[in-house]
């Protein structure tokens, strides 16, 4: 017993460490990825002369200066002041020499603009899931835009652009015109808005002077034993005022803290005292103008009471929407949030707003009071949100000026609620009423890959369309009772009868195959599935009567429940198994046998593009203890299957439930699924130490109590089935055994 526990616990610790790192740029104390810097300094404002040396000092203090792969400076290309250019160049070269930065990464845009653009392009093209690029933008958008535009479009999704200044972002009172952050966001990067650096800016007006009390805040630079910091003070003197506000971005990247001030800088740079690491930012503000898609909306420069001086307004009367994928650094991979939406109407109109996550409404819609004109905040409690989820705010206004949006602010409340587990739609878990209404919306994800997102009170399923609409493979078919809604969504996406090559079913649960008969009849296409899945599809009643059924099958009441939800038989026309290769639409889908959730579970793997379609292999949210482990019928097989898929290092995971995942989220999700298995095992073994003998139901209640911190009187069937699978796995390994009265006890106790 003790030996086994020792073997299990380090794996949990290892997974937790990696999961925590996935929320930010750090992994086991190492920055995962690379850093690029963008600065002006040659026109308009002198603040970069003093901020740039501080930024290099921060990178040096955190041991990540070797991660710096690109610097562009003097990057205002619409104008130039020779004195400004000279001073900025002196700051960059002086700091680079003092902190050991390679000259090859430095690009003066006044003398080497093409080289700067090529360097940005190459840095983006070198990016990947394991090696993202954090591009810190402390200057205008024109040069970064050119470099990112020149890069491979498939690589841009691994780039995180961080900024903090409305002027740099291309808005406000500017003497120059050029690209804005909206142009950069449209290239497909992730945008992270850091708080303005007001705490590092004393008299931020160009050409002004700071007061003596402001200079006193930076005297530690002048008096430091470190010659580099003393030199840094001379750069402040060259500026003539105390402004290193651009360093806020770098401090936020390396610490997760957006509120840097002179005292915090002094602690890190002079006293060598690093702050306690932030794992999860308690508050994350998503500026409305930074959402990836602004539908019938445009950004508007506003007064100081507006966050970042920008808000979003409709382009014309009627419906508008902002939506984006939630992908922030130092964010919980999955958690509960209090969500605050700041909005207003104008004096001549009113609007109605709805917050959605993955298309599902979060709380009731709310309406602005007519002709009010003041900014207000609407709060929604207990919103479950995971990295990779889509956040949207939809508004309906009766005038162009009705319903402005400022931001969506997320206040972290803790790990996600087990009651909101994303596996609710799995066949063994769901007990949905016949009148369960769903919405079906088609979304294009990649070239050649889209999906119908099916959402309802207890549903969050994905049916995938691979290839063009007139020559498609359809993967999975949802419940039988909602087949017509699914068909309508496919028709709206351009899929027509006679133009579907096949319907592929990933496994034998009827929230994935139930609509197969109606779907195949409509599109006149064959149905393909694994042999074990075919047996369940052609005889759905076998799922109820088989030994070890996932459903309680000991009474007539159980029978009636099953009859109310059982699907009609679905004929399978072709069996698919390990080693099959499906060539379709310039893709080659390899069939992998991946039992564990269900013995007929298959994964489709597209090697060239590193795509996987995993059905229900990976269930639950991206947190080891955040939700129930999902349904597992064979624990050892499930572990092997999860590790097998992880070793493929997929770039995209198209799951049976919730939105597809990409980039670092894919490995995080797989690690969480493995961690949940370990947490269930640990809970069962701890319970057996506390009580020598346990029934399966008692072991399941112990798992709810220890892992989910939740008391349940009667565990649901799917949970009992999963814990039974865990106990059987432990029994095969000689850790537990059946007692004479069919309870469970630990071997050796």
Folded structure, characterized:
- The chain is built from 21 helices and 38 strands.
- The protein has three domains: 30-269, Alpha-Beta Complex (Inosine-uridine Nucleoside N-ribohydrolase, Chain A), CATH 3.90.245; 283-416, Jelly Rolls; 439-459 and 536-674, 4-Layer Sandwich (Metallo-beta-lactamase, Chain A), CATH 3.60.15.
- A seven-stranded mixed β-sheet has the order 23-24-25-26-27-28-29. A six-stranded parallel β-sheet has the order 5-4-3-6-7-8, with helices on both faces.
- The longest helix is centred in the last third of the chain and has 27 residues, at 664-690.
- Helix 2 packs parallel to helix 10 (247-255) and helix 12 (483-492) packs parallel to helix 14.
- With 749 residues, it is α+β, with helices and mostly antiparallel strands.
- Strand 37 (736-738) and strand 38 (744-746) form a beta hairpin.
Uncertain ranges: 1-22, 417-435
For the record, the count of structural domains works out to: 3
β-strand amount: 25-35%
Arrangement of strands in the largest sheet: 23-24-25-26-27-28-29
**Approximate shape:** globular
Q: Which architecture of the largest domain would the CATH scheme give at its second level?
A: Alpha-Beta Complex
CATH class of the largest domain: Alpha Beta
Write down the overall mean pLDDT: 87
Strand tally, please? 38
Tally of separate helices? 21
Spatial gap, N to C terminus: 9 Å
Radius of gyration: 28 Å
Profile the largest sheet: 7 strands, mixed
Estimated structural class? alpha+beta
CATH topology annotation of the largest domain: Inosine-uridine Nucleoside N-ribohydrolase, Chain A
**Helix amount:** 25-40%
């Amino acid at each position: 017993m003790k030996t086994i526990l020792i073997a299990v616990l380090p794996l949990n610790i290892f997974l937790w460490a990696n999961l925590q790192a996935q929320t930010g740029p750090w992994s086991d104390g190492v920055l995962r990825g690379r850093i690029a810097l963008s600065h002006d300094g040659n026109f308009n404002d002198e603040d970069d002369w003093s901020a740039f040396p501080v930024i290099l000092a921060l990178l040096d203090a955190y041991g990540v200066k070797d991660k710096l792969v690109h610097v562009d400076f003097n990057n205002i290309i619409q104008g130039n002041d020779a004195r400004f250019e000279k001073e900025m160049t002196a700051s960059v070269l002086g700091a680079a020499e003092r902190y050991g930065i390679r000259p090859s990464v430095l690009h003066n845009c006044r003398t080497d603009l093409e080289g700067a653009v090529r360097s940005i392009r190459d840095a983006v093209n070198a990016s990947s899931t394991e090696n993202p690029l954090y591009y810190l933008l402390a200057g205008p958008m024109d040069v970064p835009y050119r470099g990112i535009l020149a890069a491979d479009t498939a690589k841009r999704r691994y780039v995180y652009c961080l900024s903090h200044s409305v002027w740099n972002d291309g808005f406000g009172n500017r003497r120059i015109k050029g690209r804005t952050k909206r142009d950069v966001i449209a290239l497909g990067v992730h945008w992270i808005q850091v708080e303005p650096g007001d705490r590092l800016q004393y008299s931020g007006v160009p050409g002004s002077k700071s007061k003596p009390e402001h200079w006193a805040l930076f005297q530690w630079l002048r008096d430091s034993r470190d010659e580099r910091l003393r030199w840094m003070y001379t750069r402040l003197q060259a500026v003539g005022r105390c402004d290193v506000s651009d360093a806020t971005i770098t401090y936020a990247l390396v610490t997760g803290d957006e509120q840097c001030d002179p005292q915090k800088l002094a602690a890190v740079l002079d006293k060598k005292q690093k702050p306690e690491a932030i794992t999860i930012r308690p508050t994350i503000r998503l500026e409305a103008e930074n959402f990836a898609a602004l539908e019938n909306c445009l950004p508007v420069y506003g007064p100081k009471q507006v966050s970042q001086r920008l808000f979003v307004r409709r382009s014309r009367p009627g419906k508008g929407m902002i939506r984006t994928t939630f992908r922030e650094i130092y964010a919980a991979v999955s958690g509960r949030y209090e969500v605050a939406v700041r909005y207003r109407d104008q004096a001549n109109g009113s609007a109605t707003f709805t917050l959605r996550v993955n298309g599902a409404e979060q709380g009731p819609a709310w309406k602005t009071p007519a002709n009010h004109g003041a900014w207000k905040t609407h709060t929604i409690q207990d919103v479950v949100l995971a990295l990779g989820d889509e956040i949207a705010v939809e508004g309906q206004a009766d005038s162009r000026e009705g319903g402005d949006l400022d931001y969506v602010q997320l206040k972290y409340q803790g790990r996600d609620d087990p009651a909101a587990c994303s596996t609710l739609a799995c066949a063994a878990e769901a007990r949905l009423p016949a009148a369960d209404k769903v919405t079906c919306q088609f979304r294009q994800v990649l070239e050649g890959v889209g999906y119908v997102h099916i959402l309802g009170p207890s549903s969050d399923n994905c049916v995938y369309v691979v290839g063009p609409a007139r020559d498609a493979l359809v993967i999975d078919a949802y419940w039988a009772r909602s087949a017509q809604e699914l068909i309508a969504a496919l028709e709206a996406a351009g899929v027509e009868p006679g133009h579907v090559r096949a319907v592929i079913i990933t496994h034998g649960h009827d929230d994935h195959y139930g609509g197969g008969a109606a779907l195949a009849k409509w599109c006149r296409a064959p149905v393909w599935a694994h042999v074990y899945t075919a047996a369940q599809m052609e005889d759905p009643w076998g799922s109820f009567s088989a030994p070890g059924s996932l459903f309680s099958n000991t009474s007539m009441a159980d029978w009636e429940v099953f009859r109310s939800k059982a699907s009609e038989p679905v004929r399978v026309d072709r069996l698919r198994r390990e080693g099959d290769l499906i060539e379709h639409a310039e893709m080659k889908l390899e069939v992998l046998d991946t039992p564990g959730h269900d013995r007929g579970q298959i994964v489709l793997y597209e090697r060239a593009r590193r795509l996987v379609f995993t059905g229900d292999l990976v269930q639950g949210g991206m947190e080891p203890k955040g939700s129930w482990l999902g349904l597992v019928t064979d624990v050892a097989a499930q572990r092997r299957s999860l590790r097998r898929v992880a070793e493929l290092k997929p770039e995209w995971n198209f799951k049976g439930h919730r939105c597809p995942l990409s980039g670092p989220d894919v490995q995080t999700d797989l690690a969480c699924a493995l961690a949940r298995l370990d947490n269930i095992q640990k809970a069962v073994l701890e319970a057996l130490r506390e009580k020598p003998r346990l029934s399966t139901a008692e072991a399941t209640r112990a798992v709810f109590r220890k892992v989910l911190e939740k008391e349940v009187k009667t565990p649901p069937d799917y949970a009992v089935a999963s814990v039974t699978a865990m106990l059987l796995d432990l029994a095969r390994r000689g850790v537990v055994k059946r007692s004479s009265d069919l309870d469970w006890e630990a071997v050796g106790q």
